[in-house]
Amino acid sequence: MRPAPQSYHARRDPQTGEHYLAVSRRGSALKDDPLLAKGTCFTLAERRAFGLTGLFPPAVSTPDEQATRAYANFQRIGDNVAKYLFLASLQDRNETLFYQLVCAHLEEMLPIIYTPTVGLICEQYSQNYRRPRGLYVSSEDRGHIVDVLRHAERDDVRIIVATDNEAILGIGDQGVGGMGIAVGKVALYTAGAGVHPALGLPLDIDVGTDNERLLNDPLYLGVRHRRLRGDAYFSLLDELVEAIKVVFPKALVQWEDFANEIAFQVMHRYANQLPSFDDDIQGTAAVVEAGIRTALDRCGRTLAEERLVFYGAGASGAGCAQQMRRALKASGCSDAEINRRVLCLDSKGLILADRPGIRGHKQDIAADPQVASGWTRSGDGFSLSDVVSQFRPTILIGVSGQPGTFTEQIVTTMHAHVARPIVLTLSNPTSKVEATPEQLLRWTNGAAIVGTGSPFAPVVHDGVTHHIGQCNNAFVFPGIGLGAIVVGARVVPDEAFAAAAMAVYEYTGHDATPGASLFPRIGALRAVSAKVAVAVGRALVECGAAPEMSTDEIDTRVAEATWEPRYLPYRPA
Description:
- This protein has a 7-stranded mixed β-sheet, sandwiched between helices.
- The radius of gyration is 24 Å and the shape is globular.
- The protein is built from 24 helices and 17 strands.
- By secondary structure, the protein is an alpha/beta fold.
- It has 4 domains: about 5-60, Hemocyanin, N-terminal domain (Up-down Bundle); about 105-275, Rossmann fold, CATH 3.40.50.10380; about 280-470, Rossmann fold; about 475-560, no CATH class.
- The two termini are about 20 Å apart.
């Protein structure tokens, strides 16, 4: 079992100033505790003091030697799923070594511990299951969810990533297998922002599944009934939220991979009950705004001039559209103008305010019907091709999960009306992308400014190497969470996401190098997260969502809360 944090306490020697941990565990209980394990790095003195003599080979490794051995073992594995399982096993044995390895090789390992590999892990979750991580709350726990939360192996949880498993990446309902997403995002809070691993809790809300494959699989580990809907669903979530407030009163909740309208309902229902946000809606939106601002710098344009089209109006697409509407408002555009500058399409075509039956979040992103006055349409509704040819967008964003929908005709038509089209194809995994970077650059003779949701290799076109920036939520959500918890945020309002977007944009810089990436390198994630955390913390204090404190105090709190994966000396408690 993982320990509760009270099994060790950070101390500083008053004589030498040395930082150390006062540890109450001994012997196998210490050796097998992943938060405290050092493996072959336990010194001879520590082995004698804690009853570990004989439990390891006699040689004492340095942390670098231990990490070299682990990385060599990782490199010997060819299959990405097997690499994921290797890293998961390492995390279960030794969290410090796991994070040391991941932080040292972020660009190589982030696609393994999260997208795209985690999609396969979610699909194969019940077949590959080895040991529990995180907490499972199911429909069977109704009436005693408080007791379930008290069973968590963490007693001072500050970050909870919770999913109901229905909209996992681009692959849909994965039932209890969605736990892979929650585990991966909690790991990124630590690897990306330095949130101590003892403070994070992955939480799977198993309300059933409508995935026939899972229901018919004898190895499936979730509850075997159709998804709860309506009152039955929300009464369970209501109980969960109340239980979180009782058991983990200082925790921030990140809602993850809820389906479209449910995602908005959950986000709004609990926004003022506890500090929480939906990463697919608000996190994606913040990083998209950052990428758009950087792209506009590259081509010398301003946001107030732009015409935006979002192809896809699910949780992520609608969230991004709402974020950009707020950004346009802040740039001086009127509401009427915004309703003619930001267009969204769903499976029925262009979303206009006079569409019969429109409801929910789509009402908030519907455009002024006058924008399409006089247009011709190719079917019952205005298609993407209709919109691109007649609206003449300058920015085109794909969040549809429909591969290949940004065709050569659509892209060249867009390019005919704007010298440097900004095109973000954000659907993931890679198989779902609306167009590849190579296609977009070839079709525009290298003029397009491109970003993607999944990682892509650089593209060389006409002698210019185009580095394809990944519009990765990891650039914002770890810093948002860190900033919110260090200032004691009561809620997480829109101001936090605007601040996060500006922080990523400012970090990326105004690089005029042809082909430069729209986003920072993944290897810079910790530095980006620190900047985001400070900006978000300041924004939360300024807007009254957190207690008053000075900017210097916020900076200090962020720095002090950032955990580094290295071993401290141990002394008996």
